[in-house]
Amino acid sequence: HKAANCSDSNACTVDSCDAQKGCLNTPISCNDFNACTNDVCDKVNGCVYTSVSCNDFNACTVDSCDAAKGCQHTALVCNDFNACTVDSCDKAKGCIYTAISCNDSNACTVDKCDAAKGCQHTA
Description:
Elements: E1 13-18, E2 22-27, E3 37-42, E4 46-51, E5 61-66, E6 70-75, E7 85-90, E8 94-99, E9 110-114, E10 118-122
Antiparallel strand pairs: 1-2, 3-4, 5-6, 7-8, 9-10
């Protein structure tokens, strides 16, 4: 008796021969249990793992991927530690630091801004 050739030439199956059932071509699992990859099986190459894109196109978040949790989008901190600016974040542009006005409308004072103390008005 000649042995049966059960190869289906598909890298996505495990090929075997069962005395009762004949050829078996059992699908393999390509799940790598990593939420940061797309897992697929290519009939020629077998399991292929490609990185997922976590880009949320929001300049106000830091995008990353955690193997267990998947994509993470952490709020960007836009503090420039300058008391002379109002700090904000624009989803398209990212951090924006807008200068504040220290004009107290008093012609008898010199108005200036100190990065640590903020607005200063000296006579």
